Amino acid sequence: MQVDIKEVEEVAKTLYIRALKLLPRDIKQGFDRLMREETSATGKTVLGTMVENIAVAERTKNLLCQDTGIPIYNVKIGKNVVLDGAAMKEAIRKGCARATTEHPLRSSVVHPITRKNEQTSCGIGVPVINIDFDERDETLEIEMIPKGSGSENGSFLQMLIPADGVGAVKRFVIDKVIECGGRVCPPTIVGVGIGGTSDVCMHLAKVAATRPLGSKCADEEGAKIEAQLSEAVNELGIGPQGLGGKSTAFRVHVEVAATHITMNPVAVNIQCHSARRASATITPGGIAFE
Amino acid sequence: MAHHVLNMPIDDAQTRALKVGDTVTLEKTLFGIRDATLIAMFDKGRKTRLDLKGHAVVHTAPNVKKVDPRPDNSSGYEPLCIGTTTSMRMERFTRPLMEREGVKLIIGKGGMGQATLDALRDLGGAYLAVVGGAAALETTWIEAIEEVDMDDLHPESLWKFRIKGFGPLLVTMDSHGNSMYADVNAGAAAKRGDVLAKIGAA
Fold this sequence. Notes:
The complex is a heterodimer of chains A (about 290) and B (about 200).
Chain A: H1 5-21, H2 25-37, H3 41-60, E1 70-79, H4 85-102, E2 128-137, E3 140-147, H5 149-152, E4 155-160, H6 165-180, E5 188-195, H7 198-209, H8 220-233, E6 249-257, E7 264-271, E8 278-283, E9 286-289
Parallel strand pairs in A: 1-2, 5-6
Antiparallel strand pairs in A: 1-3, 3-8, 4-7, 5-7, 8-9
Helix pairs in contact in A: 1-4, 2-3, 6-8
Chain B: E1 3-7, H1 12-16, E2 23-33, H2 35-42, E3 56-59, E4 63-66, E5 77-81, H3 94-101, E6 105-108, H4 114-123, E7 126-129, H5 135-139, E8 142-149, E9 158-173, H6 180-198
Parallel strand pairs in B: 1-2, 2-3, 3-6, 6-7
Antiparallel strand pairs in B: 2-9, 4-5, 7-9, 8-9
Helix pairs in contact in B: 3-4
């Protein structure tokens, strides 16, 4: 399959706008579950407002949240896909900028030192473009994640040592959830990276935070910690928006990578309740959005 | 737990009547402000021509569309999506905002800290929580963008919104030293030991 680069640009534009307006089905189902389980009156009211907002956004075709986030594009290239990689990256960047100027969207991206906003949602290294490969034949998948800053500021890395053990890893996660309180817009998905190098660990946390609800860590030991921490964080009483209740997190997600004999790294990256993402799959049959 | 409908601006007595747990709906006018605006005003000494005395500010930077200025909409902007950002980053600006500009109410999400609670007590103010991330709904409470100042900081300009039925908002920090966030955080800290013990991480 030869990929039409112009098509990639259009898809990149459409995905940014779509992600900002339509919440994925798994997150909506997550809200249904929390609404059933929440016992705090304030917590129930806050969750009710969030659910109402999802309906208002769909009805008025408006953005779910004003924070257009840091744009992230995750590209997966299947087998027998022919494309010009550099041109694809440029097309994604153009599509992202066009979504911003043509919709229009608030550009939330600035130079880190001068703080200058180019009003295009683009800058040095932004949009973030992650490229990976998979086994699907003649398939190009592009996922778009507008990562909100309130929860992105809830990001932490600790290079623990082997003597600290796995207990310290769990303690780190619980302490960071307490530290963040209502600032990260709970109920959240708490992404946890365990292992790797420092940069890999942080990336694992981001992958975990943006994984669909209902998915499970592929590593058996990681999945055990995931289940334990999911229960534990909801016993802290932080609740929706930090105003008290059971629904502190939809779920804790864990991703793991092998690490060095001297190392025991742990990272946390949090996803707010407006857990937005959209994806498009390009095949010889056409483009399917989800 | 009273419900208050406040036609902005308000005075000291109206502010001190607000108690944690009360709900509030704002009418008429609301200002939008955030990191860059506050840094410009209080770290770089910029002055605004807009009068914030007795008013409420919401921590926001909106999505807007450029339009031709009209008599009822002289700013040249139409609101597209307006929501609330995390307040805690702006903690050190609460006191100067109240002292220099006379702001009475801060609207935000996620709560603020002790410095804000002290300023609310000393200067007569309250913090009202809006549900963060519920911007599509919040936008329906905003009628127009009446004015904009410091627009070189766009989208972190100083915005003057005309509002209708902005709320209900929850009073989560008041002028009497009460903070729901401090209570919830203390509760979480108290539960920490048991939670860690249960997962073998004490």
